[in-house]
Amino acid sequence: MTDHTHTSSDTPEETNRDSIVDAWAILILIALAVSTAVFWVSHQ
């Protein structure tokens, strides 16, 4: 967690928070896609 891939962020805390938000957004999108597919298939 020491490498600074986000150069636009000023502090490591900002970079860490951004990556956490990105991870949560991706997880939510995946969960929505999976639940939609399961709902769709179960009602066919």
Oligomer: single chain
Overall SS class: mainly alpha
Shape: rod-shaped
Helical residue percent band: over 70%
Distance, first to last CA: 46 Å
Percent strand equals under 5%
- How would a textbook summarize the main sheet? none
Low-confidence stretches: none
Integer count of domains: 1
Mean pLDDT: 84
Encode the helix/strand succession as letters: H
Number of strands: 0
Figure out the total of helices.
Answer: 1
What's this model, at a glance?
It contains one helix and no strands. The chain has 44 residues and is an all-alpha fold.
Can you tell me about this structure?
The protein has 44 residues and is mainly alpha-helical. It has one domain (14-44). Helices cover 70% and strands 0% of the residues. The protein has one helix spanning 12-42. The longest helix is centred in the middle third of the chain and has 31 residues, at 12-42. The relative contact order is 0.10.
